[in-house]
Design brief:
Number of strands: 13
Strand order of the largest sheet: 4-5-8-1-10-11
Largest sheet: 6 strands, antiparallel
Number of helices: 1
Helix content: 10-25%
Oligomer: single chain
Structural class: mainly beta
Strand content: 35-45%
Distance between the termini: 79 Å
Order of helices and strands: HEEEEEEEEEEEEE
Radius of gyration: 24 Å
Amino acid sequence: LLFNTLLCFAALFALSFILINPSKKDNNVKMKAEFMITVTWPKDLDDDVDMYVEDPQGNLVAFMRREEGLMHLDRDDLGHRNDTVQTEWGPIEFKDNREIVTIRGTIKGEYVVNVHMYMKRSKAAEVPVTTQLAKVNPYSTITIKEVVLRLTGDEGTAFRFTVNAEGDVIDVNQLEKALIPLEGIPL
């Protein structure tokens, strides 16, 4: 009788231990992104370069609007101003000058990607700004373009790309389009 009771407790303990441990499949968070647009400029320069992305519906994402439509600005890089983050274990430095916009779903039509010299702080005459468009699912690099910015306020179109209904890029061009009005930064 004691042996059967002990066997019953052991079986119940094993069963409860299995039920307490949640399945790892249930805890997976599905991150969805269709496109990633990355802007980089030399890490030794303290210039503040901003990226502006307009979708086919006219939504505009930039530092003042981090989320619009299906687009999201993941990081607004200010040059050297936000390279160091204080943690309880000490400072962590991220010296790369990089801004990233993710597009979480696709809308048929043309997207415009511009770069803008928000604040010129370095003494460099020219700042080469590299913009890359990558398709995430499956991963492939669509295009990489360089725009040279010289003065505070300079704006240039890195590229425009057109997406079809299936989410494939069918055209890339560099036709200029201003996204910042002449009177200043849009609110």
